[in-house]
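Hello,

Our lab assistant flagged a job as stuck in the queue for most of the afternoon. It eventually completed. Since we weren't sure the result was trustworthy after the delay, we are filing this so someone can double-check. Below is the sequence as submitted and the structure that was eventually returned. Let us know if re-running is recommended.
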Amino acid sequence: MRVEVPHEWPDTAEAARRIQDELAPLVEIGGSGPDSVSTIAGLDVSYAGDRLAAAVVVLDTESLEVVAASTARGTAAFPYIPGLFAFRELPTLIEALRGLEMTPDLLVCDGYGVAHPRRFGLACHLGVLTGLPAIGVGKTAFVGRAGEPGIERGAGSDLVDAGEVVGRALRTQRGVKPVYVSAGHRIGLDAACRHVLAAAPRYRLPETTRRADRLSRDLLGRT
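-- returned structure --
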């Protein structure tokens, strides 16, 4: 898979914020697209100190069977700074994406899209760099507040930050804690939630995240 990165990887917080400010206007949010999704990719990163392993796992949307996968090892060279966490993971995630022999229709990131202080989380950044529709799925809310959704699968509550709806607390299984879904690029929130629900038929987390997490952990254990 071809991925072009139009900027150098930053080594300061100021440089990282400047990149976010330059790329954020390129984010496209809204609509019901993409029109057709036959493959959906999960992306995740596991850590052991500063060592990290990134995994991309592509699933068939109907069967949720794995049709392709790619991994990469790296080092977290950028410091941990809230709001700039993507810069710790992006170089290795991009390397993993480049190792794919196919281009998925949709990316699902373990992180955030516009549910981010600068409205430019990991899913936004990956979406802009790849040109692909992208979704962020977080285990907790990074910004904003959401009411408790109903207990039934599919129930949701808007995640609101500074008066703006930036995501949704989504109940993927009856009675379990919700996940926090936000659109990242070239997709609307309703469509993002539909895809996350479809990818989570049995567990709280979508299969995209579960499979990518497992593969990244396995790779890290072999380093």
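-- support follow-up --
The delay was a queue issue, not a problem with the job. The result is valid. The chain has five helices and nine strands. The mean pLDDT is 96.
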